[in-house]
Design a protein that fits this description.
The structure holds two protein chains of two kinds.
Chain A lengths: L5 H17 L10 E4 L3 E4 L6 E8 L6 E7 L2 E12 L2 E14 L2 E5 L3 H4 L2 H6 L12 H4 L2 H18 L2 E5 L3 E2 L4 E8 L6 E11 L2 E14 L1 H12 L1 H22 L4
Parallel strand pairs in A: 2-12, 7-8
Antiparallel strand pairs in A: 1-3, 3-10, 4-7, 4-11, 5-6, 9-10, 11-12
Helix pairs in contact in A: 6-7
Chain B lengths: L1 E4 L4 E4 H18 L4 H10 L4 H25 L5 H28 L2 H30 L21 E4 L4 E4 L1 H17 L4 H12 L3 H26 L5 H22 L4 H24 L6 E6 L1
Antiparallel strand pairs in B: 1-2, 3-4
Classes of the chains: A alpha+beta, B mainly alpha.
Chain lengths: 255, 303
């Protein structure tokens, strides 16, 4: 993962594109080169979702491309309800460890047409490949799969896991792009945007780009403040409400 | 226009929040109730996590109670001594309540407990309002005998008697302490001020004169909800200042208009209407608890 600035990245990409265009036929293939429209998604007060544009060059016309946007890994509690005296309540829980908090996949074709299960599993490509090996120490394979599938299903319903085939557009033989939507409830943290080029069912090339999703300005300050200075935050909330109530009384004095 | 709530970590329409605050504020001004018990279920319906809805609502209650108590102070309708005794019970109750809240949250049962508490509370209040409203409508047509001014019951035998001059009472301090405690626990778990519970208790159990009841209850509610807000913020980090601000802004304005309309509208029919609305909310919450969920699984906390 390089730490080059965006202008330099774009310059590099441009060079790559030029190389690609000017390279005489029959020479070695151009290397996979990708970049993002923005490496930082800022969550501000008006944040209502966003998107990240991924573009790249270096894939052959017959190659398949898969792009995965992976969020920071977290441990996630999953709960299961059952009916107790007529009321549905949570009666079982499990913690799925080290799973991505966000997972958005875009591809040129449905995954099963691109490569077989074993290849996809090895590189953890596709939401079906989300696994927590530790779960198998506590439960049987079938049971573990049930919880994992439930987890993925809920994440998909929440919008933080997604798979969209045919989302990648080919602009020319060499250039491809995909716009991955970022939902408003996106988890914050360091992300990876991985691009895989599949040739004959195997990964021919891959590249990863960093992406940061972070709260900025007021949003970040309020959140940090509430968590690091909880006492002062609590007092501030009380004082703010008291002042607002008093102000309301002054403005709308009625008699 | 969307606003991203920093603690709830989701994006909600600003006008929806302001409108909700305004509507509930209007209703609370109209009926002289706190409105917290209407706001929390509404917040849950629009997708705010219950734990955050409850804690933030407690924050909003501070503002609406201060707004209300100032007017009562000016008219001298606050029994401060009684308020302080209620408050002592309320402080203990709300501290216990927040501890219970934290425990239930850890167990993954807090949403269920909040929903269940609301089902019980809303259906009780709803039935009471419908009953009262209908009875009042009927009573107008015939004369009713007045009750005796003072009645003696079991509560007068309790020790630790204390004199409350403003309320013209000489009763055991354990009574207001106990009332304060119960409402304190409710305040922590449900995010309500608890006025609709403590007011009947003050009138019927303590025997306070109705003129000082509202002012005194508001006085103690301010400090109890301040305690809840502070403890929720420090123990659970569930107080969302941005959400609270929106609700307060809408609520303060709404309450003023509600108060102005209160004298112009037919009270009994409105009470029946409010009763029906509350029943509706309660039934919806109950339905969500008993109907088979679309998916038995749900996501809990991320660690």
């Amino acid at each position: 993962m390089s730490r080059l600035g965006t202008p330099l990245r774009l310059l590099l990409l441009l060079c790559a594109l030029l190389l690609c265009a000017t390279a005489p036929l029959g020479q070695a293939r151009a290397q996979l080169t990708t970049d993002l429209s923005n490496h930082v998604v800022a969550i501000t007060t008006g944040f209502a979702g966003s998107s990240v544009l991924i573009f790249g060059t270096g894939a052959e016309p017959n190659d398949d491309i898969v792009i995965v946007v992976r969020g920071p890994e977290k441990n996630q509690v999953v709960l299961r309800k059952s009916n107790v005296a007529g009321i549905w309540m949570n009666t079982a829980r499990i913690t799925i460890e080290n799973v991505p908090s966000f997972y958005a996949l875009a591809s040129t074709r449905p995954l099963h047409e691109i490569a077989d299960e074993a290849v996809l599993q090895r590189h953890r490509i596709g939401v079906d490949q989300i696994r927590d090996p530790k779960l198998r120490l506590k439960a049987s394979e079938n049971l573990a799969r049930e919880w994992e599938e439930a987890f993925v299903r809920r994440k998909q319903a929440q919008g933080t896991y997604s798979e969209s085939y045919y989302l990648i557009q080919r602009r020319s033989a060499a250039l491809f792009r995909a716009e991955i939507p970022i939902p408003p409830n996106v988890p914050v943290g360091p992300y990876h945007v991985e691009t895989y080029v599949f040739r004959d069912g195997r990964i021919a090339e891959a590249q990863s780009q960093p992406l940061f999703i972070q709260k900025v300005d007021l949003e970040a300050e309020v959140y940090d403040f509430a968590h690091t200075q909880a006492g002062i935050y609590g007092l501030l909330a009380v004082v703010m409400a008291a002042l607002a109530g008093w102000l309301g009384h002054l403005i709308f004095k009625r008699d | 226009m969307q606003i991203y709530l920093p603690i709830a970590e989701l994006s909600v329409n600003v006008f929806l929040l302001l409108g909700l605050g305004g509507l509930i504020g209007f209703l609370s001004g109209l009926f002289g109730v706190g409105g917290g018990f209407l706001m929390t279920p509404m917040l849950i319906f629009i997708g705010i996590p219950p734990a955050i809805a409850v804690a933030t609502q407690a924050n909003q209650v501070i503002a609406s109670s201060i707004s209300g108590v100032l007017a009562h102070f000016r008219r001298g309708n606050v029994d401060i001594k009684m308020g302080l005794v209620l408050l002592a019970g309320g402080f203990v109750g709300s501290t216990v309540g927040v501890a219970l809240f934290t425990l239930l949250r850890g167990l993954g049962q807090i949403d269920l407990v909040i929903s269940l508490s609301y089902v019980i509370l809303l259906s009780t209040i709803g039935v009471m309002l419908l009953f009262e409203g209908t009875r009042a409508l009927l009573r107008r047509r015939r004369n009713v005998q007045r009750r005796k001014l003072h009645q003696h019951h079991w509560a007068h035998g309790l020790p630790l008697k204390m004199r409350f001059r403003k309320s013209r009472l000489y009763i055991s301090a354990l009574l207001p302490l106990g009332c304060g405690f119960v409402v304190g626990v409710l305040s922590a778990i449900m995010g309500v001020g608890g006025g609709f519970i403590i007011v009947p208790l003050m009138i019927y159990l303590l025997g306070m004169p109705t003129t000082v009841v509202i002012g005194t209850s508001l006085f103690q509610i301010i400090f109890v909800s301040a305690n809840v807000t502070f403890l929720q913020a420090t123990q659970n980090q569930t107080v969302d200042i941005a959400l609270a601000l929106m609700l307060i802004a809408g609520g303060v304005v709404g309450a003023q208009y509600g108060g102005r309309y209160a004298s112009r509208l037919p009270g009994d029919s409105l009470r029946i209407l409010l009763g029906a609305l509350i029943m509706g909310l309660g039934i919806k919450l109950l339905y969500d608890l008993v109907s088979t969920p679309d998916d038995l699984y749900s996501l809990g906390a991320t660690l």
